């Protein structure tokens, strides 16, 4: 009886083994992309919210002070007393006292007003207004050349100087507009905040986007390049069908002042206008920039389901 049971179990095992293999293959094929293939991401960025540009000068505008003369006895300036005595009259004393008192009051008022204005300006310089803009573009995966252009830019971009950051912004926006035929989704928003709060918002948005990558496979931050080799992230030998449908590029730009409100993205024209506004930011107003894109590695994939799940703010163009 025991031997029969063992034989039966072996037969069941032989029959079920192919079924288990098929079930495992289906599980891998239907599983979320991130579970079977580390979704790669690229990052290019630079700038600092601690730039010396934002430090307040010691003073704003010239200081004014009344002329100081040596005083004698009663405390009135000697040049004022001499004409009084030379006049020989006592009737002018009251008039002189009133004039001196009025002059002293005006000088003190002027000094107080200047100090007050300088204090207000210093506060404004210490915590100026900064705009944090976010523009996201979802493109069809057939725009693979843009992916290659972004990879090359990450290895060559100067991300330490304002001029380099301005050139980076120009090249990314120009590259995206060249591939406008592949645009599928878009999103834009801008928040104008004091410097201290803008810094927090900028890095929070950056971390939120980077957390959606399984691995940051290429990074250039302040000219510090880090790269993960393609071989280290190859697919398994069994192979998984390439179901990638989209590329996603995110632009984060912090800049001083306000260069206009970004339109709500409901069409390709709105998205193009957003990119043009970012491209027009002068180099001396740029505080910080981050460009993030996924997937970064060739052959990596981003499905429509993943795009809509992880980026619910994106709108169909």
Order of helices and strands: HHEEEHHEHHEHEEEHEHE
Q: Determine Rg (CA atoms, Å).
A: 34 Å
Largest sheet, in brief, is: 8 strands, mixed
Shape, please? elongated
N- to C-terminal distance: 70 Å
Class computed from helices, strands and strand pairing: alpha+beta
Flag low-confidence runs.
20-38, 52-90, 114-124, 235-241
Q: Give the strand line-up of the largest sheet.
A: 7-6-1-9-8-4-5-10
Strand content: 15-25%
Residue-averaged pLDDT, rounded?
76
User: What multimeric state do the chains show?
Assistant: single chain
Proportion of residues in helical segments: 40-55%
State the total count of DSSP E strands.
Answer: 10
Counted up, domains total 2
Number of helices: 9
3D structure, described in words:
This protein is an alpha+beta fold. It has two domains: 33-51 and 128-316, no CATH class; 71-126, no CATH class. It is built from nine helices and ten strands. The chain has helices at residues 2-30, 33-36, 78-87, 92-126, 144-156, 162-178, 195-210, 268-279, 304-310; strands spanning 40-47, 71-72, 76-77, 129-140, 183-194, 215-221, 224-227, 246-256, 286-294, 315-316. An eight-stranded mixed sheet has the order 7-6-1-9-8-4-5-10, with helices on both faces. Helix 5 runs antiparallel to helix 6 (162-178) and helix 6 runs antiparallel to helix 8. The longest helix is centred in the middle third of the chain and has 35 residues, at 92-126. The protein is elongated.
């Amino acid at each position: 009886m025991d031997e029969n049971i063992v034989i039966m179990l072996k037969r069941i095992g032989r029959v079920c083994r192919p079924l288990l293999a098929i079930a495992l293959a289906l599980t891998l094929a239907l599983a979320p992309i991130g579970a079977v293939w580390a979704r790669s991401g690229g990052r290019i960025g630079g700038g600092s919210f601690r730039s010396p540009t934002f430090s307040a000068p010691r003073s704003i505008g010239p200081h004014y002070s009344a002329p100081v003369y040596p005083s004698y006895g009663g405390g009135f300036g000697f040049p004022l007393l001499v004409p009084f005595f030379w006049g020989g009259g006592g009737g002018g004393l009251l008039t002189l006292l009133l004039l001196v008192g009025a002059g002293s009051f005006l000088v003190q008022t002027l000094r107080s007003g200047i100090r007050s204005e300088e204090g207000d300006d210093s506060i404004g310089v210490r915590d100026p207004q900064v705009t944090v803009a976010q523009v996201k573009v979802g493109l069809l995966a057939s725009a693979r050349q843009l992916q290659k252009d972004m990879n090359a830019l990450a290895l060559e971009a100067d991300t330490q100087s304002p001029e380099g950051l301005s050139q980076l912004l120009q090249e990314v926006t120009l590259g995206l507009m060249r591939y406008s035929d592949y645009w599928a989704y878009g999103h834009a928003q801008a928040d104008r905040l004091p410097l201290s709060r803008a810094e927090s918002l900028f890095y929070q948005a950056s971390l939120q986007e980077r957390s959606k990558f399984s691995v940051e496979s290429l990074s250039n931050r302040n000219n510090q390049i880090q790269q993960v080799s393609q071989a280290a992230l190859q697919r398994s030998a069994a192979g998984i069908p390439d179901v990638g449908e989209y590329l996603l590029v995110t632009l984060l730009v912090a800049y001083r002042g306000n260069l206009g409100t970004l339109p709500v993205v409901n069409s390709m024209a709105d998205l193009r206008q957003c990119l043009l506004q970012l491209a027009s930011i002068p180099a001396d107003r740029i505080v910080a920039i981050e460009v993030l894109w996924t997937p970064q590695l060739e052959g990596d994939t981003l499905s429509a389901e993943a795009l809509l799940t992880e980026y619910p703010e994106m709108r169909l163009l």
